[in-house]
UniProtKB/TrEMBL annotation:
Xanthine binds at residues 20, 27, 156. This is Xanthine phosphoribosyltransferase. It comes from the Bacteria. It is an enzyme of class 2 (transferase). The gene is xpt. InterPro entries: PRTase-like (IPR029057), PRTase_dom (IPR000836), Pur/Pyrimidine_PRTase (IPR050118), Xanthine_PRibTrfase (IPR010079). It comes from Bhargavaea ullalensis.
């Protein structure tokens, strides 16, 4: 997706050979116009799949998911990473280990909003080791819901998450695939070049 790649190129900060900082438009400050374009792109890619709901995880998955939900005309559910005062019954939960942060979170969604009749589009901001996506797949399975695919804003192609999920037969659509961050420079994978 051209607009996204240009934004990453101009505003992304390479913190190390493994970490890309995109706080100016995705992880802290949010660019609504870019999110809208991202939402349209996901809707275009998954529009024929009969999606009934979008499933994401707080916090940075929410903005692109809401925009995709707006375009597809479906609700967005975000998994919580912490206990909530009000979300405490009929929970569907999964363990998510973060290699980056070296911590494990229990993520939860209310079974009131996720049912066996749902066809889900899972969306997240980054795909690195794939643990968040696996946790969301686990929750979808516990609900008996069908997963049409996973939409990722930025996939780090040099980390194993993408391969892990695709090897499971899950359709993964990443709007930008970063091939390498070597030398302080962002290199994109060819398949994700501008249309
Ligand atoms: P995984 O889910 O693919 O296994 O990812 P991992 O555990 O490695 O990442 C944990 C957190 O770090 C996630 O955010 C993920 O989006 C983020 N992350 C991973 N690699 C990068 C990177 O190169 N750049 C940026 N900016 N973030 C990265 P989170 O803790 O869920 O944060 P948030 O959604 O609340 O913002």
């Amino acid at each position: 997706m051209k607009m996204l790649q240009e934004k990453i190129t101009h505003e992304g900060i390479v913190l190390s050979e493994e970490v890309l900082k995109v706080d100016s438009f995705l992880n802290h400050q949010v660019d609504p116009q870019l999110m809208q374009a991202i939402g349209h792109e996901f809707a275009e890619r998954f529009g024929q799949e009969g999606i009934t709901k979008i499933l994401t995880i707080e916090s940075s998955g929410i903005a692109p998911s809401v925009m995709a939900g707006l375009t597809l005309g479906v609700p967005v559910i975000f998994a919580r990473k912490r206990a909530s005062l009000t979300l405490n019954q009929n929970l569907l939960s999964a363990e998510v280990k973060s290699f980056t942060k070296k911590e494990t979170n229990t993520i939860s969604v209310s079974g009131d909003f996720l049912t066996a009749g749902d066809t889900l589009l899972i969306i997240d901001d980054f795909l690195a080791n794939g643990q968040a996506a696996l946790g969301l797949l686990d929750i979808a399975e516990k609900a008996g819901a069908k997963v049409a695919g996973i939409g990722i804003v930025i996939e780090k192609g040099f980390q194993p998450g993408g391969q892990l999920l695709r090897n499971r037969g899950v359709r993964v659509e990443s709007l930008a695939i970063v091939e390498s961050l070597n030398g302080g420079h962002v290199t994109f994978r060819k398949e994700a070049q501008p249309k």
